[in-house]
Every structure is written in structure tokens, then in C-alpha cells.
Amino acid sequence: MSTDDPLMTWAPAACTLPTAERPLREAEFDELFGTSSAGVERPDPTHLRIALDPTPEVAARAAALAVRETRCCSFFTFAVVASAGQVRLDVTVTDAQVDVLDALQRRAGEAA
């Protein structure tokens, strides 16, 4: 879901980030995806792979965002992978949180 209303966000209800902070965090993901995403794959229902621009700055920004996100949403596991001149963000969740990953995929796909 995309909207201009700051009270209406795309993060699912399972997100435990305080409501007032969600638009800011979502904007961080939107900025990362909008400026650095090179493609989105879904290897399986609990795994999302986002190709990113292969620069140290993008890798560092993705890693910092992942660390902040796991503080409030422990159901995410993030891995920033740099290999063969490529950088990707792998995101996994448990079966119970697939809807959260679906929302993240929709947002990343809109930006890619």
C-alpha cells in the first residue's frame, strides 16, 4: 500500500516499531530501494533477495538499516552479501511472518 498520508503506512500490523516512528523507518527503506535497488527475487515464501548497487556506501546503509530494524522486529533476519562485484540484501522470516515479507517485497518491487 502506498499513500501520501503519513498515518497510513505499508508496514503490516506485525511490525512492533512504535506507530509514530513507522513512517520514518519506511522512508528509510523507500530511500534505499528507490536509489539503490537493482532487482527483487523471491527464492521461496520466507526469503526475499534484493539486488543493490554494488558500492560500499550502499552496503553500509543497508547494513545499518538492517541492524535498526531487527531491534524492533526480531522476526526479520537480514544478510548483506557482497560477492563477485554484486551486493544484495537477503531478508528471511518465519512462516508466521510471510505477510510482512510480502509487504516489504511489494515496496521494493515498486521502487526497483
UniProtKB/TrEMBL annotation:
This is Arsenate reductase. It comes from Saccharothrix carnea.
